[in-house]
Request: fold
Amino acid sequence: MAIEQLLILIKPDGVKKSLTGNILTKLSEARMVIIGSKTLKVSRELAQTHYYQLKDKPFFGELVDYIQGKIYGEPYDRVLAFVYQGEDAIARMRKIAGATNPEEADPVSIRGAYGRITTKGVYENVVHCSSDPSEAEREIKLWFNPEEIVKQIYPTKKVVIEKEEKEDWA
Ligand code: DAT
Ligand code: MG
Reply:
């Protein structure tokens, strides 16, 4: 079995329902290691790029609003992002996460236990979990910079950035 890495997101409904601890506890049963983590507000562009494969679906607009936490607002309009690594990590973490549709998910899985379908038909399924190694690579590179991950998992290159304005502590 191969060592894999994947992206896990605790979505805004998981943040709003104060489920971070419960979700991380359930995921820890797989004995994977966290090699990157952060909290962030999701831009429209990031949301659309993350879910680009679903752009023609009728629920795409609502899906983008959902991952941005639009319906929750301050202080819940954010996600917690993690890169996990371990043996056969993708299949094992997806099993703990449960099926996409929270009504069909194993009731002991994260989505089965904590997810719901809203009256508008949005699957509020609490977590995102990469589906295969190539999607995992695309998603990890989309959500994280190399220096935010404690291990080199994909090839990197040195780039010189001139006159880039960035925030620093005052
Ligand atoms: P997964 O998140 O299990 O990888 P996916 O990639 O097919 O599933 O879809 C991404 C998200 O889109 C999913 O977590 C919830 C939403 N979604 C998928 N199918 C849906 C549907 N039929 N109705 C509403 N939301 C849906
Ligand atoms: Mg998917």
Observations:
- Helices lie at 12-16, 20-28, 44-50, 60-67, 89-97, 110-114, 133-143.
- The longest helix spans residues 133-143.
